[in-house]
């Protein structure tokens, strides 16, 4: 059996690497003498020509570093200011610039050149996410024939959105160089097939197979997940350690946890909560919303705007409704340790996961896994999260519809124990059967 070679934008660099992908892939990587490659997050003066090994850890890791210019053009530019907005239905936020695309291709070519010499014929290669769309194409050009799989952690755009991208056809061509293209949801498979056919001029061969000369690839959904059992145990332990004063008698908690990204629908959530408070004076002082949102991608202008908008809205709602004993929204602008998050999820009666567009949304899964089975909270979930395809027993909402969201908040807060339990058990069953180990196994089995 060959090795698994895994690529992702950022590589976990510590002595004990952690994070969702480490949980999913750690075992496979350490069993087969596998290899994980990614950027370190540090920038360098000159583009390197070799991968550098990261010492220690349970499996072999190799890093490559970006120059400052590559970071600005390839990463902040093409990846985060073109592909990310396009893939999240925000073509209006795309910043199309030729130097972004040039750098994106050049970084992928440089990576392929460093990678090709260390690939052995029986190795399997698993490329993660939108930073590396051209990687298989570049490797094939260098004569690498190994099986190559790609997993996109974001949604995939349909042909109408793809038309906004000057090089949409090229993206389809790049993708066809992978043997397997894994997406989060069936909706993404449909969109990708339609784009491959309409924009890439590929032939749809049925059963997820497309032919785009000279290659054939397979497109399939593999919904990513978490280790639900591990997260449940963590939440059970951590609820005991929450600081005093977070849980108050006669006060329900609603929680939102999202990077401060425009795709997450935080302003829409705040507006709906404002509407709820307008409608229900009897709930004043009896419910608070904790929104935990660390800033992200601070070099990209659209992220300054979303930060300003959310700060303004939370300030306005608190200004309108707060009194000396109660502020309706606690808006926390920093990361919180995973363990504390687990405890907070369990202490919250309602989990608000209301993105405008999201590949999967793991917070939805973490929230459910963290609940107390005897007295579970309610998940309010956007129909636009990939997770909604699997988590039908959540309270499904349309984040654009403020009135519906406000009504759903009341429904969630008032839901009977028996209904909460019923929904929780159905959701938890899904999470334990299709967890993160299932996900990586399903993908690698399909890759063959
Ligand atoms: P995305 O990958 O777009 O950020 P997901 O919901 O799929 O969205 O994954 C987010 C992950 O980041 C979850 O595991 C969540 O627990 C974690 N996370 C989000 N916000 C915070 C925060 N404020 N502090 C710590 N972890 C966070």
From TrEMBL:
It comes from the Bacteria. One of its GO terms (biological process) is trehalose biosynthetic process. GO terms for molecular function: alpha,alpha-trehalose-phosphate synthase (UDP-forming) activity. Pfam families: Glyco_transf_20. CDD domains: GT20_TPS (cd03788). Belongs to the glycosyltransferase 20 family. PANTHER family: BCDNA.GH08860 (PTHR10788:SF106), TREHALOSE-6-PHOSPHATE SYNTHASE (PTHR10788). This is Uncharacterized protein.
